[in-house]
Every structure is written in C-alpha cells, then in structure tokens.
Amino acid sequence: RPVIETGWEMPLLLRSLVLDIPDEEALNNWPLIRQNLLEREKIAKKVLSNALDGLRDQWIESDLESWLTLHRFYQPAIDRLASLLDSDFLVYIITTKESRFVKQLLQKVAINFPAARLIGKEIKQPKYLTIQQILADLPESPANLWFVEDRLDALELVQQQADLNDVGLYLADWGYNTAQMRQKVAQDTRIKLLSLSQFAADFTHW
C-alpha cells in the first residue's frame, strides 16, 4: 500500500500481486511496474480511474452505510482534529481522495469540516502547489505552518521548494510508509518522524 498515491493505481497493484511481482520490487520500482502493467494490459489510466470512481459512486448511491462502515479512522487523530477545529488554529486537509468522499467519512464521525479547507484530488495538482496557494491566499504569513503527511515522496517534494523552507515537515509513522522510509527520515535534518501519540498531544510535544 505505501506505493499507491491515488486510487486508480490499486487495480494495477492487485494485478502485480496476481502476477507474483515481489513486494521488494514493487516498493523499489513501482512507477516503472505501473507503466509496464498499463502497456501489458492495454489499458489507459483514465479508463481505470473512471471505472474505479464509477463503481464507488454506484456503491455509495445504492448503499452508503456499507461503504462508510468499511472505513476506520485512527481515533486519536480524529479527536485531535476535532479539538483543533474548536481552537484558533487554522487546519486544512489536503488529500488524494476526492473531497466529497472525505466529507462523507468525516460526517460519519460528527465532524463538519469547512469545505473551503478540504482540498481533494479533484484539484489535480501536487500537494506542494496546494500549500503554496494556501500561503498566497492567507492575509498574512502564519507564525508556523506544519505539514503532516504519511507519504515521504510528498514531503520531499515540499522540501525541494525554496519558497516553502519555513514549512515544518512531519512523516506520520502510523500511515502508509515503510520501516525503510522511517529510518531515512531519522537521518533527515528537516523532515521529522511523528508518532500518533505526538500528533494527539499538544504542539509542544512535536
């Protein structure tokens, strides 16, 4: 799962398992494997994406409750999110899920997240660009801006942007990353490893 960025790749990952592509190879060479599978199966990314989204829409429309019950939040993360929404801190969600799905999932746990600060994959751009736009739209520069993410690639892209040097970067160790990725971060001077207990605690513990 750590190799997947957006949902359309998931059928290809399942196909790679059927073809007995070793886990280590998938972890190290997923972009190449993904492209080879598209060519081998003679299928376009857009076709996969439309099929996956269409099936999900159909499922949600016909049986929303069963779709919702398949999802589980980390309770400490949800509790912390709820407390931050009741505070003076400005919180954004930037996700590779479509925002409409995230909205439904959050409503399931009684969180009404501000729609303007819920930014999903429909925006069709890397997360670092979204962070840049958020900063550009704020009336004044924040004292601190922290980005918590479970994909190391996304954090490293932010790290490469000269205008985002002041953004605090945190790899969520409870998310979709591997021991090797977490070890790499241990040697990084800027990206910090963040545990779920730290995330749930006061910012002074980060």
Itemize the secondary structure elements and their pairings.
Layout: H1 10-18, H2 23-41, H3 45-69, H4 75-85, E1 93-94, H5 99-108, E2 118-119, H6 127-137, E3 145-149, H7 152-159, E4 167-172, H8 179-186, E5 191-194, H9 196-200
Parallel strand pairs: 1-2, 3-4, 4-5
Amount of helix: 40-55%
| Poorly predicted sequence stretches spanning 5 or more consecutive residues | none
Can you count the beta strands?
A: 5
Largest sheet: 3 strands, parallel
Biggest sheet: strands side by side, in what order?
A: 3-4-5
Shape assignment: globular
N- and C-termini, Cα separation: 26 Å
Structural class: mainly alpha
Strand content: 5-15%
Radius of gyration computed on alpha carbons: 18 Å
Total helical elements: 9
Order of helices and strands: HHHHEHEHEHEHEH
Q: Tell me, rounded to a whole number, the average pLDDT.
A: 92
Task: Report the oligomer.
Answer: single chain
Notes on the protein architecture:
The chain contains 9 helices and 5 strands; from the N terminus they run ααααβαβαβαβαβα. By secondary structure, it is mostly helical. α8 links the parallel β4 and β5. α1 (10-18) packs across α2 (23-41). The mean pLDDT is 92.
